[in-house]
């Protein structure tokens, strides 16, 4: 069981605002109420989709999400960026792995605000275990979901650090502190298992 209070303290010490919700529905309502009349970019995020943000946010914002027919380039220029994470350490480090780089870049710079969505299944006790989770749980599951021909997708048990042309883990970011290039960043913690 994750120590949510410790995690929030460490994230806040690292410059991130935090919020905590029992359900994805409550978190989605919170974001929907906070964001109005904005351009919003969303990275490839099963968590955002499971929260129903694809239905809520476009009614009163301009949403750029490649899953809704938008482009990664438009998402990169949005005022607000929303992403889930692959691993979050109770010690405060945020880990993401990406294939094209759009998602990891979106969490570093160029936006007025960043919102990171985290289900409790993404939380690990420390950085090493958060990184392990991103590489050995999230990446293989995403490769399977995308039907990639990689050892991790075929076997589904771990990262093989492969040389497959269909490899999806090509870029890694670790946010140790809130990036200077983003004025506001918030980690939204949700007491449900969400995403991969």
From TrEMBL:
Coiled coil: none annotated. Signal peptide: none annotated. InterPro entries: FTHF_cligase-like_sf (IPR024185), LUD_dom (IPR003741). It holds the Pfam family LUD_dom. It comes from the Bacteria. Residues 4-190 form the LUD domain. Gene3D superfamilies: NagB/RpiA/CoA transferase-like. This is LUD domain-containing protein.
